[in-house]
């Protein structure tokens, strides 16, 4: 039986992510799953928003924070639910953006219930050594 190496930092990061999702959930306790990845040119947010239309999604960038908001209504009107696993109601997720992003050229696209937000980076100027004469 192979032994797995315990990584306490991995556990702390997992707990942090769970707390962030809990704190950012809407009144119904629903928060869409969001992935964030970084390329050389941009930060890319991918959110699972099945059943939402473009008109139901609001994206804002204020004070270095990207906020994703929306509302998904329940598909079936019931008097009493026995089990609810698909979130509905309002949601709001906020993410801190690094300083070097181009907020004027942020693009968003919704395809098959997956929202992709591309946040271009502002190129960091290279260091230049100045010679003293």
- Order of strands across the biggest sheet? 1-2-7-6
Q: Give the low-confidence spans.
A: 24-28
Number of strands: 7
How widely separated are the two ends? 68 Å
Helical stretch tally: 1
Main sheet specs: 4 strands, antiparallel
Q: Give the topology string: H per helix, E per strand.
A: HEEEEEEE
Backbone shape? flat
- CATH level-3 fold name of the domain at 29-120: Immunoglobulin-like
Structural class: mainly beta
Q: Measured on Cα atoms, how large is the radius of gyration?
A: 20 Å
**CATH C-level label of the domain at 29-120:** Mainly Beta
CATH architecture of the domain at 29-120: Sandwich
Instruction: Give the fraction of residues assigned to helices.
Output: 10-25%
Q: What's the average pLDDT?
A: 84
Strand content: 25-35%
